[in-house]
């Protein structure tokens, strides 16, 4: 083969791989507009913590003097967690403040993002002993469009990379997102996630408005970036993760599970995502359609 044809082939294949990766990443983010968020788990807890973080951030005067060794240790932990969740890095530090709440120290820091992201104004971190809240201040118009939200999440979330290997973002935003308070919420799934509700391992995306500012936040448990062998395993069949189990299950068995109506909405949604990624026969595709119509995935807003 002539050299120029060989190079053209390599470039074509590389471009195809990049486009495929981009499409796969786009498919990893589900954003839907809903009438209410009343069915979301941990809604009230989220409301309280995000409100505290946003209110304190807007009312606080940040220190710009060099941080103490204790604060530097907390900042190093923030950077470490950030590198496992986000594409953007927190550097340099623009200000910090240590607060005390119910005999627990909470640090509030403001950073400059190293990445130019459309709609992003500022990045701050509310750092507690159990979790961090990353407050991405964004243009207020960003929450008016599900595609703009999807694009923003795609710009900041680090998919399919260790240590978390984030798999999917499920996000619901209110159709009337002009009110104050939480206007959007949804879980972020990752590989080997422990059972739901385990403190220190939760990962959520949250949209929040105050009277003057708009935030798209990530609430992340403090233990998320521990080494894999330190993280509790997710309880599942054959000690494998939900994702691994579904990927290695025969198509006929997955279709049977859907038809059984005995699985939860998250499991059902994961099975459907896997099935539509496979090359189904006409008969299997028709069976999937029947199963779905009889037992449709519950939306996050229910």
Which features characterize this protein?
alpha+beta; 2 domains; nine-stranded mixed sheet; 26% strand; disordered N terminus; disordered C terminus
What pattern of helices and strands is seen along the backbone? HEHHEEEEHEEEEHHHH
Strands of the widest sheet, in order across it, are 1-6-7-8-9-5-4-3-2
How many domains is the backbone divided into? 2
Q: Span between N and C termini?
A: 58 Å
DSSP E strands, number: 9
Report strand %.
25-35%
Overall pLDDT score? 75
Q: Characterize the main sheet.
A: 9 strands, mixed
Number of helices: 8
Over the alpha carbons, how many angstroms does the gyration radius reach? 21 Å
Structural class computed from helices and strand pairing: alpha+beta
| Helical content class | 25-40%
Unreliable sequence segments: 3-25, 231-240, 295-302
Shape: globular
Task: Describe the 3D structure.
This protein is α+β, with helices and mostly antiparallel strands. It folds into two domains: 23-230, no CATH class; 237-294, no CATH class. Helix content is 37%, strand content 26%. The protein is built from eight helices and nine strands. The chain has a nine-stranded mixed beta sheet, sandwiched between helices. Helix 6 (251-260) runs parallel beside helix 8 (282-294). The radius of gyration is 21 Å and the shape is globular. The protein starts with a helix and ends in an 8-residue tail after the last helix.
């Amino acid at each position: 083969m002539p050299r120029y044809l060989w190079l053209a082939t390599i470039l074509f294949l590389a471009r195809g791989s990049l486009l495929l990766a981009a499409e796969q990443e786009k498919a990893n983010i589900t954003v839907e507009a809903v009438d209410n968020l009343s069915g979301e788990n941990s809604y009230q807890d989220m409301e309280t913590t995000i409100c505290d973080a946003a209110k304190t951030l807007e009312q606080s005067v940040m220190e710009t003097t060099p941080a103490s060794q204790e604060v530097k240790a907390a900042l190093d932990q923030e950077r470490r967690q950030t590198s496992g969740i986000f594409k953007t890095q927190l550097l340099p530090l623009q200000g910090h403040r240590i607060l005390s709440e119910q005999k627990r120290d909470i640090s509030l820091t403001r950073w400059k993002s190293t990445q130019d992201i459309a709609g992003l104004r500022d990045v701050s971190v509310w750092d507690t002993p159990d979790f961090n809240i990353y407050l991405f201040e964004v243009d207020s118009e960003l929450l008016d469009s599900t595609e703009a939200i999807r694009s923003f999440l795609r710009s900041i979330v680090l998919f399919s990379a260790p240590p978390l290997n984030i798999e999917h973002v499920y996000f619901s935003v209110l159709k009337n997102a002009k009110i104050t308070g939480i206007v959007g919420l949804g879980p972020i799934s990752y590989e080997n996630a422990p059972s739901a509700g385990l403190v220190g391992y939760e990962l959520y995306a949250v949209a929040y408005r105050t009277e003057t500012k708009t935030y798209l936040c990530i609430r992340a448990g403090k233990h998320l970036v521990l080494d894999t062998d330190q993280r509790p395993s997710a309880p599942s069949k054959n000690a494998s993760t939900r994702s691994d189990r579904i990927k290695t299950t025969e198509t006929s068995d997955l279709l049977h599970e859907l038809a059984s109506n005995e699985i939860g909405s998250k499991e059902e949604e994961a099975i459907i995502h896997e099935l539509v990624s496979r090359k189904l026969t006409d008969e299997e595709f028709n069976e999937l359609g029947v199963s779905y119509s009889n037992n449709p995935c519950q939306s996050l807003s229910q």
